Amino acid sequence: MGLFDFLKRKRMPATIEDAMASQAVDFVNAFSSPRAPIDASKLDYSEDSLHLVDKVLQDFHQRQAQLPDDLHFLASAYVFETARRHFGGRYLRGDQDNPFVLVIGEPDFRVGVLVMAKVKGRVANGLEDNIPYFYAGIAPLVDRRANATLV
Q1: Which residues on neighbouring strands pair with residue 124, listed in sequence order?
Q2: Buried b (16+ CB within 10 A) or exposed e, 60-69
Q3: pLDDT (tens digit, 9 = 90+) per residue, 80-122?
Q4: Contact predicate 138/150, CB 8 Å
Q5: Can you give the pTM of this predicted structure?
Q6: In the chain, what is the greatest distance between 2 CA atoms, to the nearest angstrom?
């Protein structure tokens, strides 16, 4: 069996969008046990649900605990997908701090949303990197059809 056959069986996502959506679902599933610190049934990709993501990250901040890489990616994917469901867009490769960027509004305007460093910053810096506050900054940029990057 060759690599191609292995990849076909693994059913690799066809696009970055598919992969990110799958990772967001994994974030929800990670909190589906009855003893989870948040109620996964309320992770519905609404703006309000981002308070639950923020609560998880605040817990790491308060305990001064390192955010595991896999949870960092899953939480970022959930925030990304919440934004993409509301504003559309596509993912592009970014840099080391933000390996992926959600780009909204093309071709008329271009709002880049850098979630990954913000999620990591929420754990390191606390409330100054509040996720719902960060997310609330997207709509005004889209409404103005701005060419901007939200960090």
Answers
A1: none
A2: bbeeeeebee
A3: 999 999 999 999 999 999 999 999 999 999 999 999 999 999 9
A4: yes
A5: 0.91
A6: 53
